[in-house]
Amino acid sequence: MKKLKHMLRPALMLLLAALSLTAFITPRAPDSPLTSAAWDTVEFMSTEPRMIFSPEHLRRTENHIVQRLEDAGLPVMVTEHDLVPEDSILGADRLKLWVENLGFSPDVIESTSTRNIYSYIPGTSDKFVIFNAHYDSFPDSPGAADNATSVAALLESFIDFHQRGEKPEVGIQVLFSDGHEFGLGAGQFVKEHPDLLENTIFALNFDVVGNGPILPIGGANEFSNQFFKAVSNPTGFSILADAHPLDERFFAKADIPAMSLVNFTRPWHYHVPSDVIENLSPGTVTHSIDVMSRLMEQVSQTEWAEDFEAEAPTTHFMLAYHVFIQYGGVVRSLISLLAIVSLIGLILLKRQELQISLKGIFTSIAGVVLLLILYAGISVGAFMLFFRTVDHHPYLIISGLLLAVLLPLASYFYLKRLARFIQYETFAISIAGVFLTLGLAQAVLMPGTEYLSLLPVLLIAARLLLPQNKILYYVSGVLLGLLYLPLLFIMTFVLGMALPIPALYYVLFIILFYVLAKNYPKSTPS
C-alpha cells in the first residue's frame, strides 16, 4: 500500500502529460471550398524534391504559383538573386560542405540563383503585413508538409481574400521564397528589396504546417496576443517563443517584427523521403487555411496595427499547450518580485533551523551547473555532428530518444551521490537560487517564458515551509506534469537534440522533481 502511494504522484503526472498531448490533435476547422484547390497544389508540388541545385521541379512549382496568382488578377513579381554563400545562415564553409555531401561540385554554387515570388493587396493606409512561406524542399524529400502545405494554404487564402473584394485597411503582402533549406530563404529578398518592405510593420513566416495544429515559435512575443485572439482552439508553448529562429530572423534583422508559425509534431516525416502527400490529411490543410484566413482578417485592420505598435510583450501562462492565464508586464514584475522575496524570506525565516552552509550551497550549484554544461555540450555536439549528414533530422531524434532514457538515470544517480554530502534544505535552496537566476534572465531575454523558472522557486519555498502538506505535494506534481512534460515531448520526439534551451530544461526538470519528491533526512551532513 505504501509503494502504491509513492507511485500515485508520478502516475498522475504521466496521465496529465498524456492528456496534454491531445493538443497535438489538429483542431477541426470549418469545411472550406479552398481545401480542394490547395490539396491539388500540394499534390503537384510534392511529386518530387524541389532543390536549388537541381531546380527543374522547383521552376515548375514557381510557374504554378505565378499562374495561380495571375489567373486571380493579382500583381506578381519574380525576383532573381545570385547565390552568395556568405548570405546563408549556415555559413559559407558549411554550405560548401553540404553541397559536396550531396554529390555536387562546389563550383555549382557560382552558377546557382534563387527566385522569390512576390505579390500584394494594397490597403487604404500605407502599412503592410507580409506573409512568407518557402517553396523549396529538403534534398531527397518531396516536401509535402515541409513546405508545400504552407505554400498551398497561403496561396489559396490570399487569392480568396482578394476575390472577396474587401478593401483592407492594412495591405497584405505575400512572399514565396526559395533556398530556405540552404539557409537563404527570404533573406536575399529582404536584403535586396528594402523599398518593397519600407512600410511593412510585421512579418509572419509559415513552415511545416502540414503535420498538425499550428504553433507560434520564434520571433516577436507581442504578436502572440493577436495569434491567440484570431485563431480558434490555438495551441502553443511559451519556451519556444524565442528558441528556434527560422525565416522570421531575416525580417527581424531589417527591423521588421516577425514570428514563425509551424508544427513539428511528426518528425519521422520531416526532411526525409516519406514527406509525401499520402502522409498528410486534408484536415491539416483545412486547418492551415482557416488559421491563415483568420490572421489575414485580423492583421488587415488598422485598429490591430495601432494596438500592435503600442503593445508590450505579454506572458501567456500555458498548461498543456493551451493558454491558461494571460498577463502583462506589471504582473510579470510582481511574479519576479514574489519569487525573490520568497527565496530571501525562506532563508531569513529558516536560517537557524536549516543551518545552511556556504560550502554546501557552492557544492550544490557547482554540481548542477556542471550537469547543465555537460548536457548542453552533448546537445550542441550531437547537432553539429549529425548536421553534417544530409538526412540529419532522424539522427537528432534518435539521439534525443536515447538521452531521454539515459539522462534521467544518469542524473538520478549523480544527484543521489551529490546529496550524500549536502544537507537537503541547503541543496533545495541552492536549486531555487539557480531557478531564480534563470527566471530573471528569461524575464529580460525571453519575456513570456520566465514563469517556467520562477514557479519552481515558489514550489521549493512552499515545500520547505510546509514539508508535510500532502495537498501541496500533489498540486506541485500536477503543475510539473502539465508544464514540463509537454516540453520534454517537444525536445525528445520533435526537436531531438537540436535545441539546447529545451534540452537544458530537461535537466532542470529532473533536478526539480528530485528536490520536490525526495524526502532527505535533516541530519544529512552539510
Automatic annotation (TrEMBL):
Residues 1-25 form the signal peptide. Keywords: Membrane, Signal, Transmembrane, Transmembrane helix. The keyword Secreted does not apply. Residues 116-295 form the Peptidase M28 domain. The chain crosses the membrane at residues 324-349, 361-387, 393-415, 427-445, 451-466, 471-491, 497-517. The keyword Membrane applies. This is M28 family metallopeptidase. The lineage of its organism: Bacteria, Bacillati, Bacillota, Bacilli, Lactobacillales.
